[in-house]
């Protein structure tokens, strides 16, 4: 699927602005961004539930922008699930088959197969109302898959589940998608969820696509400060570009890669992941070390998180408990090392 220059306005609200996107076949795509960034609008445009103000949607080279939702052959799962409460599980799953005139025996058989696929066997004749939240989720997924859709679209499908079930369902959904090889697009505001499931993450903000890429690529090479801050935690430091690095508060920080298109003197933001930064003894010489004062220590058991104040900036350093300096104390002075390879320079 190819999306070209897609825009959608609701009155004065520009929900989506000039989105270009290639959605490769058989992949799991997550549309990720904060509330109001336009991800649901993009999904609804893809589904045919909204008409774009501008732009086109192409499926296998054919323009489907004006094709109504029910003729697109896509399966959808909404946050609300939209199950029919008065129908049994089997009738819910086979609903689309009935509309298509598939006979009763065949419908039952197909519903049973689909329920087995989503690991919910033996509930065919149960009322939907008797199922738990996680089970209903599976019924909605089975129903959406019943017509072997070309594209599987899900809008925050797991947000109503408690944290534990939600994590389990993320893994299940990913494994199901891989088994079926079905092109899938999921809307989520949860970066961990996106990182768990997606082949490709589309990070959105303010109606625009900020970055598209594999989860790790986006984590390691965020395109801008918004992505760096939204995907995982990042230390963001304001500085000025120099010949071989960045100057921050009078300190020189060498970087392994300089961004193309920026000239020395330009205002930049330096992004360093907390697990890539290190604490060193105060005064110990070495490259890329900034003097700082310990502002807070979180001993979390599995990890230690130290917040250190460096001039105006607060730096977060995350380490394994065995790497924790024994003399770490609030107000104590330390050096924070930002290894050159871990420094990502972004246009400010
Ligand atoms: P959320 O996670 O909160 O659902 P989202 O990223 O999915 O957010 P959208 O629902 O796509 O965001 O909304 C994008 C913008 O468009 C928001 O400012 C929203 O208020 C506005 N919007 C969406 N649908 C409509 C509508 N039918 N009428 C008016 N404004 C709308």
From TrEMBL:
The keyword ATP-binding appears for this protein: yes
Record keyword Transport present: yes
Every ABC transporter domain range: 1-231
Alphabetically ordered keywords of this record: ATP-binding, Nucleotide-binding, Transport
UniProt cross-references to PANTHER family, sorted A to Z: SPERMIDINE/PUTRESCINE IMPORT ATP-BINDING PROTEIN POTA, SPERMIDINE_PUTRESCINE IMPORT ATP-BINDING PROTEIN POTA
Pfam families according to UniProt: ABC_tran, TOBE_2
Signal peptide bounds: none
Listed GO MF terms: ATP binding
Protein name: ABC transporter ATP-binding protein
Organism the protein comes from: Benzoatithermus flavus
């Amino acid at each position: 699927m190819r999306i070209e220059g897609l825009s959608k306005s609701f009155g004065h609200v520009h929900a989506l602005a000039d989105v270009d996107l290639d959605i490769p076949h058989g992949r799991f795509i997550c549309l990720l961004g904060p509330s109001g960034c336009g991800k649901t609008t993009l999904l609804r445009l893809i589904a045919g539930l909204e008409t774009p103000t501008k732009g086109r949607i192409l499926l296998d080279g054919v323009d489907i922008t004006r094709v109504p939702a029910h003729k697109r052959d896509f399966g959808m799962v909404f946050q609300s699930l939209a199950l029919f409460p008065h129908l049994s599980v089997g009738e819910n799953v086979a609903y689309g088959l009935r509309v298509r005139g598939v006979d009763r025996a065949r419908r039952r058989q197909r519903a049973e197969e689909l329920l087995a696929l989503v690991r919910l066997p033996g509930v065919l004749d149960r009322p939907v109302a008797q199922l738990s939240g996680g089970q209903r989720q599976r019924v909605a997924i089975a129903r959406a898959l019943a017509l072997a859709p070309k594209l599987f679209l899900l809008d925050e499908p797991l947000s109503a589940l408690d944290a534990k079930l939600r994590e389990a369902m993320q893994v299940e959904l990913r494994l199901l998608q891989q088994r079926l090889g079905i092109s899938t697009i999921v809307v989520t505001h949860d970066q961990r969820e996106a990182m768990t499931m997606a082949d490709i993450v589309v990070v959105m903000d303010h109606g625009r696509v900020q970055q598209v890429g594999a989860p790790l690529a986006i984590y390691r090479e965020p395109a801008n400060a918004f992505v760096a801050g939204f995907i995982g935690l990042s230390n963001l430091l304001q500085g000025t570009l120099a010949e071989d690095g960045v100057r921050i508060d009078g300190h020189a920080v060498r970087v392994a890669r300089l961004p193309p298109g920026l000239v020395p003197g330009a205002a930049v933001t330096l992004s360093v992941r907390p697990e890539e930064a290190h604490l060193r003894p105060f005064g110990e010489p070495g490259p890329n070390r900034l003097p700082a004062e310990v502002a807070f220590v979180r001993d979390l058991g599995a990890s230690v998180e130290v917040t250190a104040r460096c001039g105006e900036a607060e730096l977060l350093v995350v380490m394994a408990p065995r790497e924790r300096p024994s003399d770490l104390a609030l107000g104590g002075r330390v050096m924070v090392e930002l290894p050159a390879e871990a420094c990502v320079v972004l246009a400010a």
